[in-house]
Specification:
7 helices; 245 residues; alpha/beta
Length: 245
């Protein structure tokens, strides 16, 4: 099942590089995903193609006007229901769970916010979901849209080997285990011996324990919602984890 992204932006040229390289490029060529870029300015009605105006009530900055943005959304909205997602710093924080959810869609409309924000009437009537990629402010929603497309597209069936996503960071609430490749010794540092032991069960346990160790060290907040069994909890307690804290 292919997934189509419609991206509404003031700067379509920003997407040329990221979408013409690497896995996204191959996914488009293979027909697993498709991307349409739409210039919001094309829907402005004045000769200057104005898409922003000063905010009512005063204050710094400009606000994206309702008319051109609404027209842009309507121009790509199909007959069937399609989620319209605004990329904005005050949206729900994007994570792997949301990426997995969105990867099951057949079409998504991404709206790149700009300036001080979008006229609230458009947000209230035409936006289904608002996403932020972190607690900071960008100059616009374009980079955030690229992040969402990349994170979602790689989870679409056929884009990458499904096995590659089973134990990666955030898939089940834990960070990923360390990786090593040849040579077995580099500048005096050897790889863990278990990785060349040939014991698949021991390798699997080592990898699981390293995921737990890394998560406890780097993102202990994730452990409160991670999928843990009794062995996991026992190992974490040996490392000093206190589930109550």
């Amino acid at each position: 099942m292919a997934l189509h992204f419609d991206i509404l932006t003031l700067f379509p040229a920003m997407f040329a590089g990221p979408f013409s390289e690497s896995i996204i490029k191959r996914a488009i060529r293979a027909g697993h995903i498709s991307i349409g870029l739409h210039d919001i300015r094309a829907h402005a009605t004045d000769r200057h193609r104005t898409v922003d105006d000063a905010p009512y009530g005063g204050g710094a900055g400009m606000v994206m006007k309702a008319e051109p943005l609404a027209a842009a959304i309507r121009s790509v909205m199909p007959a069937e229901s399609t989620p319209v997602i605004l990329l904005a710093p005050d949206g729900e924080v994007f994570n792997q769970r949301i990426a997995t959810e969105l990867a099951h869609a057949t079409r998504l409309i991404l709206v790149c916010g700009h300036y001080e924000g979008v006229d609230e009437r458009v947000r209230e009537t035409m936006i289904d979901r608002e996403l932020s990629i972190g607690d900071y402010v960008l100059t616009g929603g374009e980079l955030a849209a690229m992040v969402v497309v990349d994170a979602v597209a790689r989870l679409v069936a056929g884009v990458i080997d499904a096995e590659s996503t089973t134990e990666e960071s955030h898939g089940d609430g834990l960070l990923e285990y360390p990786h090593y490749t040849r040579p077995a010794e580099w500048e005096g540092r050897k790889i863990p011996s278990v990785l060349v032991s040939g014991h698949h069960g021991e390798v699997a346990r080592w990898r699981r324990n390293e995921r737990l160790r890394r998560t406890l060290a780097r993102r202990p907040d994730l452990l409160s919602t991670a999928q843990l069994d009794d062995n996991d909890r026992a190992f974490l307690r040996l490392l000093g984890w206190n589930a109550e804290s």
